[in-house]
Design brief:
2 domains, two-stranded antiparallel ribbon, 16 helices, six-stranded mixed beta barrel, alpha+beta
């Protein structure tokens, strides 16, 4: 009976009820879509970094990343590789030669990090091969081929088949240099990465560094990024303590912060919107009580208990919130599904997005769990903001309320 009475009272003033419901729909839709957009941006930045830069886990000799001294190579890297291969959670891994130096052409120079890779094996952990926009991935040039980023190519005024020179230090500390021929130009979603990283064949870099067989980095990809910490723990227990084993969270801690706290921040953002909408519910219920003072007085006079009056007001507020939230979520899911498949083109902000490490097409996305959390927040906020109007109704004197105009 109480549910039926509350539902009937809700539609006494249809214009007011529809207005507050519409406000909830629009407010939640805007908030949810904004959250989905930022979440899509965060997920894209994370996946791009893992696919082209960090992998899930990296292994180096301790302190190698402090100065990139090529003498700090991984000893017994074959044994390390065997341990990695035996882990069932590992999807793939590669060994790399790494050095830093100056890449020059007739038009200028730029500091770079050079990776010596096995092109075929590299495809197991990196998608640089899939980001080639000009030329091919180590195909077509046999002697000293090099793959460079679009940003670096622009800086050096280099094209496919252009000759550029890499200057660095060899294993003995001597300054050495070698000419390479551009075989392919890649473009990731990070212009900073494209400008500062180049890829050559492992054997060519060994020859330049006079460090045949040296390995400076092992990159590992696991079945699921959430398993990175577990896999790392397994490696730490089995591998040499002189090795530094880091997950993508440790390599790029800013990504970890974005990933770990994004959902909490999003819920806080939605909470602010719900508070604003809550005040709308509060105002609506206060007006409803003011208009129905005589009716509430009659109900109390004929024996309706204060707890039932209180419950009736709470239910009316909850119905308002649930209707608005349900319709808002349906609209949001539809909008996110549509834009999530087609993407939102933000090419007008290309330079800013690429410096941040994401593409210009953003795909909004949200987990199902978020909607359950949101619905709980909607119900709680509706109850919270209806408590004051409900207590206001309880303070009415039945006799005075009946006599009121």
């Amino acid at each position: 009976m109480l549910l039926k009475l509350a539902w009937k009272n809700l539609w006494r003033n249809k214009v007011r009820s529809r207005t507050i419901i519409l406000s909830i729909i629009l407010g939640l839709t805007g908030g949810i879509f904004s959250v989905a957009l930022f979440n899509g941006l965060t997920e894209q930045k994370l996946s791009n970094a893992i696919e082209t830069q960090t992998a899930h886990i990296q292994i180096h000799k301790k302190k190698f990343l402090d100065d990139y001294d090529i003498r700090k190579s991984i000893h017994n890297h074959n044994l390390v590789s065997k341990t990695i291969k035996e882990n069932p959670l590992v999807k793939g891994y590669v060994t790399r030669v790494v050095t830093t130096g100056m890449m020059t052409s007739a038009s200028g120079g730029s500091g770079v990090q050079a990776f010596g890779v096995d092109p075929k094996e590299e495809k197991k952990v990196s998608k640089i091969y899939d980001r080639i926009i000009d030329g091919k991935y180590f195909e077509g040039i046999k002697k000293n081929p090099i793959v460079i980023g679009e940003k670096l190519a622009e800086k050096l005024d280099a094209k496919v088949r252009s000759k550029i020179v890499l200057n660095t230090q060899d294993k003995e500390g001597n300054i050495v240099g070698s000419a390479f021929r551009v075989v392919g130009i890649f473009k990731t979603n990070s212009s900073n990465f494209d400008e500062a990283n180049v890829f050559v064949k492992k054997k060519d870099l060994w020859k330049l560094l006079k460090a045949n067989g040296s390995i400076h980095e092992i990159a590992v990809v696991v079945e699921d990024e959430d398993l990175s910490d577990k896999v790392k723990e397994g490696f730490v227990s089995k591998l040499d303590s002189k090795l530094e084993i880091e997950t993508w969270k440790e390599i790029q801690p800013e990504l970890a912060v974005m990933s770990d706290f994004s959902e909490r921040v999003y819920l806080f953002f939605i909470a602010i919107i719900l508070i604003a909408l809550g005040f709308g519910i509060l105002n609506t219920m206060l007006m409803a009580i003011f208009e129905r003072t005589k009716e509430i007085g009659v109900l109390m006079a004929v024996g309706m208990s204060k707890s039932k009056v209180f419950g009736m007001i709470i239910l009316e507020s909850t119905f308002l919130a649930l209707i608005g939230a349900t319709l808002g979520m349906i609209l949001s899911i539809t909008l996110i599904s549509w834009t999530g498949s087609s993407g939102i083109n933000l090419s007008a902000f290309q330079q800013g997005f690429e410096s941040f490490g994401v593409g210009t097409i953003i795909y909004p996305q949200l987990s199902i769990g978020f909607y359950f959390q949101l619905m709980l927040m909607v119900i709680l906020s509706a109850i919270l903001f209806s408590i004051y109007p409900a207590f206001k109704a309880l303070k009415l004197n039945p006799v005075e309320a009946i006599r009121s105009k």
